[in-house]
UniProtKB/TrEMBL annotation:
Family membership: Belongs to the type-I restriction system S methylase family.
Alphabetized UniProt keyword annotations: DNA-binding, Endonuclease, Hydrolase, Nuclease, Restriction system
UniProt xrefs under InterPro entries: Restrct_endonuc_typeI_TRD (IPR000055), Restrct_endonuc_typeI_TRD_sf (IPR044946), Type-I_RS_S_subunit (IPR052021)
Entry annotated with the keyword DNA-binding: yes
SUPFAM superfamilies: DNA methylase specificity domain (SSF116734)
Protein name: Restriction endonuclease subunit S
Family matches, as Gene3D superfamilies: DNA methylase specificity domains (3.90.220.20)
Length: 414
């Protein structure tokens, strides 16, 4: 099978302002923002793990929103980033918190004809890597890189019959729902680990604390040690750029936080020349802006100047991860530089860490290690789900696979 290919302009609804951008110029500025009212959709509300992030809104008054009627978006609309992080897309679900939104100057919205098109299908199509790349290929580079309404309206999309669109959207949503469930479980586990760390090492309510004297905030038998004494630290060093590639040749290479995930790095760049290496399981800590951002590598990787790799000298890697999280509770807390915030070897190695006695350290590491393994398992499940979804959807949307023969991921898992 193959589906007809149509422009977005041809599938918009027959209503005023079906495909529009945000307000122009001074019609909407930060001076118009208020504490509550009608929310303004910005880039941070798009492109995340869900179809639409309803946090971090700024607002305008209902009266101002009435003046911006051509720039409003509603439930069921598809949203696109016009400038900024190009390729971001969102979809306002039917159960969203508000009944109307203002589209910012950097966004565009599309209202589709519901008799022909399922908006969820359009949203999923614009999440495909191939579609995002096509958007980037069409970027206007003069001034701030951007796309415009003309480019958006002329974008081509395969259009199956409406029942097939609905089935494809439901399959994609089933994968997304499973991923979101795992993300919520990960968040709960991480919160439990952080609470336990604060209980034991901030409030000093650790097992047996009733009988341990505390002097100057340090329990007897504990000590404050330089980070360099607690962890083996490798400072990154970048190889020559001529050895970089995206073909998977050599070791994965990271020199900053661009490929940091929520907890685990993903690999985009590789290098055939290796200078400094992080081993599987090492904690990666950024030493240039933003200083102190943490991730973990599952693989042996090469690291450049923007990163350090750390491993507990006592083999208590889970404890070290949460110690570092407490040390860098706010990014860029240490370090300095003429242009970018940064931290040098001496300053990093000298950061003091509250180190418990061996029994408490081992007990905490064992408890949190179990939680970390659960987080690792859930994250791997999400990566497999995302990979399966991203392999499946292009074939369904192109008509190469018959949607009627596809099982939902819950059924596959069962």
């Amino acid at each position: 099978m193959s589906w007809p290919v149509v422009t977005l302009d041809s599938i918009k609804a027959n209503v005023p302002y079906a495909c529009v951008g945000g307000p122009f110029g001074s019609n909407l500025t930060s001076q118009h923002y208020v504490d509550e009212g009608v929310p303004v959709i910005r880039g941070q509300n798009l492109g995340g793990p869900g179809c639409f992030d309803e946090s971090g809104f700024v607002f305008v008054t209902p009266e101002k929103a009435d003046q911006l009627r051509p720039n409003l978006a509603f439930r069921g609309d598809v949203l696109f980033t016009q400038r900024g992080t190009l390729g971001q897309v969102g979809f306002i679900p039917s159960d969203s918190k508000y009944d109307r939104y203002v589209v910012s100057q950097s966004q565009m919205k599309l209202t589709v004809d519901p008799s022909r098109v399922d908006a969820r299908y359009v949203y999923q199509y614009f999440r495909l890597e191939s579609t995002i790349q096509e958007i980037l290929n069409r970027t206007i580079t003069a001034g701030v890189p951007h796309i415009n309404l003309g480019i958006l309206k002329n974008f081509l999309i395969p259009l199956p019959p409406l029942p097939d669109q609905q089935a494809i959207a439901e399959i994609a949503q089933a994968y997304d729902d499973l991923i979101a469930t795992n993300q919520r479980r990960i968040a709960l586990l991480e919160d439990a680990a952080r609470r336990l760390y604060r209980e034991w090492f901030v409030h000093l309510r650790f097992p047996g604390c009733e009988t341990v004297p505390v002097k100057d905030g340090v329990p007897q038998g504990w000590t404050k040690l330089p980070l360099g004494d607690v962890a083996e630290i490798t400072m990154g060093q970048s190889p020559e750029s001529k050895y970089y590639n995206t073909d998977g040749d050599g070791l994965p290479f990271h020199q900053g936080v661009s490929d940091f995930g929520h907890r685990f790095v993903t690999h985009e760049m590789f290098t055939k020349q290796t200078t400094r290496v992080a081993e599987a399981g090492d904690i990666l800590c950024s030493v240039r802006a933003p200083v102190g951002r943490l991730n973990v590598t599952r693989d042996r990787i090469a690291i450049g100047r923007g990163l350090s790799a750390m491993r507990s000298r006592a083999g208590r890697q889970s404890l070290l991860f949460y110690q570092l999280g407490a040390l860098f509770v706010e990014e860029d807390m240490i370090g300095g530089g003429a242009i970018f915030a940064s931290v040098g070897k001496k300053e990093l190695f000298g950061q003091l860490i509250l180190q418990p006695n061996a029994d408490i350290a081992t007990a905490f590491d064992r408890l949190i290690g179990d939680i970390d393994r659960q987080i690792d398992t859930l994250d791997l499940q999400n990566r497999r789900l995302a990979d399966a979804r991203d392999l499946l959807l292009p074939n369904l949307m192109s008509g190469q696979l018959d949607v009627s023969g596809i099982r939902l991921p819950e059924e596959v898992a069962a």
